[in-house]
Amino acid sequence: MNEHKNKLISAKVENNCKAIVEVLLSLRVNALQISPELRKNLVYELIRNDVFLLTTRAKNQFLMELLDWNHKGLRHALLALVSVIVSTLKGVEYLVTNDQMVIVRVIEILKE
């Protein structure tokens, strides 16, 4: 999990959209391949590892910047992983750790 997080961070720093999508899809595929009973544990691991860096000093900045990229593949991969995370109450709480701007942005993207 930590390796995925590090790949995600470095891909974003390099503005490598393809690599970001690859990491996000890998995490989503992992979530969908395990049994539904264990999926909650995977979501908790994503939260514990702070995959979107929401509990860091940057707060929502990392995730909001990803959501602001106008790349359909990236948005699809990002929203798919967000949907996996918000499938649990802890996941919803994780996304609104700082404020509700992430949720507002997700809704705006879905409206487009």
What descriptive keywords fit this protein?
112 residues, single chain, mainly alpha
Characterise the protein shown here.
The chain has 112 residues and is mainly α. It is 73% helix and 0% strand. It has helices at residues 2-13, 17-33, 36-48, 61-68, 72-85, 89-95, 101-111. The longest helix has 17 residues, at 17-33. It is globular. It starts with a helix and ends with a helix.
Q: In terms of topology, how is this protein built?
A:
Layout: H1 2-13, H2 17-33, H3 36-48, H4 61-68, H5 72-85, H6 89-95, H7 101-111
Summed up:
The protein contains 7 helices and no strands. The protein is mainly α.
The CA-CA distance between the termini, in Å, is 31 Å
Radius of gyration, whole Å: 13 Å
Strand composition percent: under 5%
Low-confidence residue ranges: none
Q: What value does the average pLDDT take?
A: 94
Helical content (DSSP H or I, runs of 4+): over 70%
Oligomer: single chain
